[in-house]
Fold this protein.
Amino acid sequence: MSIRLGIDPGQSTGICIADRTFNEPKYRFETLEWDELVPFLFLKIPSFRLDLVVCESFNLLPQKAASKSFSSFPEVEVIGLLRGLCHQFNVRMIELNAGTYKPFAEKNIQVPVGVKTDRHQKDAYRVLKYAERFSLGQVS
């Protein structure tokens, strides 16, 4: 079984679940708030038998610092939770900086035709597809 997660972490976390056990991958999309995300990840990561999680990383840029004042940084909380769960269940995790994957992905990676997604789900799909396309971490 080959199931992978793409994650766009944040207050609203976008998730792309790619089931690659079939000839054509099947995708499912979710956008979850923190109170939904924690149980989802604790239930799904062990039961999915994941082989990969690809997550957009978070760096606080100087030009964004003022707008993030007093933030609890939910992006960082989600990434920390993912790191812990992936370590616990021996799942490989790749973190990609938005500045690395987004310029290419926004031009070259489109969500499958007919699938409605919000921006968080779209970013989750794109970060996963970018890692697959460029064989990061020996993804195939």
